[in-house]
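Why does residue order matter? Because the sequence determines the fold. Keep that principle in mind as you read this record.
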Amino acid sequence: MTSISPSRSRYPFLRQDFAASLVVFLVALPLCVGVAVASGVPAELGLVTGIVGGIVTGLLPGSSLQVSGPAAGLTVLVFEAVDAYGLPALGVIVLAAGLLQLAMGALRLGRWFRAISLSVVEGMLAGIGLVIIAGQLYAAAGLAAPASGIDKIIGLPGAFADALGSTDALISVALGAGTVAVLVLWPKLPRRARTVPGALAAVVLATSATLAFGLPVATVEVSGLLEAVQPPGGDAFGQLAGLGVLGTVVAFTLIASAESLFSAAAVDRMHQGPRTEFNKELMAQGVGNTVCGALGALPMTAVIVRSSTNVAAGARTKASRVLHGVWLLLFAALLPSALALIPLPALAGVLVHAGWKLIPFRKFGPLWRAHRGEALILAATAVSIVAVNMFEGVLIGLALSVAKTAWEASHLKMEIIDKGAGPVQAHLSGNATFLRLPRILDGLEALPHDRPVELDLSGLHHLDHACRTALETWAERRTTDGTGPVRIKGPDSSTGPDSSTDPGKAAAPA
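Structure:
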């Protein structure tokens, strides 16, 4: 009889989780650094958020295989916040967003994020992807990018012309383009070669080329992990009184929460293990962001790239994501100087590739053919984020989604039957709301004035107060004017849809 060691019985999947954690660490490392640089903060802060996402959030209940860290989806919003309010305010904003997430999780609001229109979420990611790509094209050329998304896109032709006139800029662009090429071609290599994550391979190759040929490109600035961590002070907390900062807190909270919970739903479809408890996952994200805010680091979300890598690498429990945070901590503590060797164009290439993957090119065509309204909401949300900013763009998308739902919910059919003699019959079916009221009244006013009318409302699923009142008024006025009696059959809140009025008597729908 073979004996099983106590450690193996307690951690039956340690071997699988250990191997998966190394793969996730290698994927997360360049992304943590790249997201930080693109957000306009020290590279070490991206590693801090990755460490907290692994060790702190990774230990908490919610989703067992989802991996958290700094996300490309928040890059634009973080950059705008740092540019507007300064780096010290970032910690306060992230801390407040984390506390708000904790409160929402405690109030069991996590599941409501699943009700957000998928078109708005994909439009948000598409808009973010476009802004990331535009901004990182400047970074790849070693040029300063304009502040707003629309200015980034409009200024690209001028930036291209400037790059053509500079040998250093062309070398920098070539290095960034080479990084993108490696990322695109990496999945096509033999499976054994792909055991090394593409992002890590691309950055290592670009760094090696820079060192071997002495390329004149900018590299990551390193200040040290402890030096980069700056907990927010009292002055930073005072900025919470500003309306703009509060709006940024709300934006951080909603976008980070939505991205995390949508990622959790996607990860649940990838494995057969325990399902995500959405309220607990929202609270876990809140704890992580509270800690990140207290350290002055970047905000965190659950990241689908790392999470899907974790599942594909064979992870079975949350131990894999915790260990990946440990490896990030050891790297940041023991090899911080290695960050200074990484060329910025390589990180720009990684983020251009990440931004491209945020844009749902393959989904848009089928969506346009099947649900044109949803496709328009997706496109409008993306364009609004580029043209205005992240927060207002998402609000525009949500408003359009609500308006579309309200319009579709008020679908109404009016059928007029006129046999040439006797009463004219008008049948209404569907949902009669104030949005359809002009059409209803136009149809009723067009009926012959010398004939009685039978108005059948029994086919209505919903009759709102505005329509009810308007029909009462129309029926009363028509009878009073002597243009013909009105008989109404309609839904009654107490007796059902079979109540009707006596012929020749003006009546209102009950």
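Residues 493-510 have pLDDT under 50 and may be disordered.
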